[in-house]
Amino acid sequence: MANNKNEEEVDLGSLFVIIGKGISNFFNFIGSVFSGLFHFFILILLFFKKNYIKLGIAIVIGAIAGLVIELKEENKFGSNLLVQTNFDSARQLYNNIEFYNNLVKQKNENLLAETFNLNQEEAKSLKKFSIEPIENGNDIVTTYDELILSIDTLTAKSYSFFDFKRTFTKFNYKAHKINVLSTKNDVFSKLDEVIISSIIENNYFNKLKELTNENLNRTDNLLRKNLAQTDSLHHIYKKVLLEEAKSSKQGTNIDLGSTRKNSKELDLFTTTLKLNKELKTISEEKSEKSEVVNIISNFQPIGYEIKGVSENRSVQLALLSLGLMILYLLLIKLNKYLENYNYKK
């Protein structure tokens, strides 16, 4: 018995020693990480202290070069067109905007002038076309709900929301923002009509619009007829109840069907609410899909001037010059280290 107790005490003692060493090693590791980070931070400070004159000269040279370039450049102005696309026309819109931007890159001013009915000076002023989706999480949820309602239950169970979200692209968002840059601030109002016409004059999209609106109108008429019939039934039912109430006053009757009558009245009320809700949805859909592309906001007649640090050439070139100088100094330091390493060998 004494031997067993001694063995257990030895095992426990060894276990505590192992745990103690593990905890000690863990805290030593954490300490070494913080020590390494502190050492790295000090090295960075020493690097900047040693080379601050060279770095300062690089920043000044870059800033001056940027200022010279900026003074020579013309002022740039921007304007935005917000649209809502229907019938999967977003992809075509993106292709068209990319085409216009390629014309700008290629400096094809003649085709730009012809496309947008501009003069040569106005066409030359165009500097960039771009488009981006207005990302809205509700678009993903709404589109997923519509998909689930249109497929069978078994398929819906095997297709999760996260799978659907991964396949959701920029073309699937409802609203999109078209951005144009120009050196003239009054050219933008001449662009939106051409951009929109390139989509709405497409025969395929127009055919889809016609078919969709026909179906919506048919559904709208059917729902209105059903609502009118429900209202008629409601009025008839009220008359029947009034007649029954009058007849019940003339004698003592026990109404055993009152519960069923209340249930029928509730069913009529529920049906009316459902039909009104469906009518509201159809009306909203008709409003949205009355056009291939709905314009939310036109280009501003007078564009806004492009300003800010991201567009400031002095800041850009100063930072670029600083980065190049730091890289140059680090390469010199690396070269010295390699030379000393070979010498030691």
**Structural class determined from secondary elements:** alpha+beta
The number of distinct β-strands equals: 5
Strand content: 5-15%
How helical, in percent, are the residues? over 70%
How would you sum up the major sheet? Answer: 5 strands, antiparallel
Order of helices and strands: HEHHHEHHHEHHHEEH
**Low-pLDDT regions:** none
Shape type: flat
Distance between the termini: 64 Å
Q: What gyration radius follows from the Cα positions, in whole Å?
A: 37 Å
Number of helical segments with 4 or more residues: 11
Average residue-wise pLDDT: 79
Question: What key phrases describe this protein's structure?
Answer:
alpha+beta, 11 helices, 5 strands
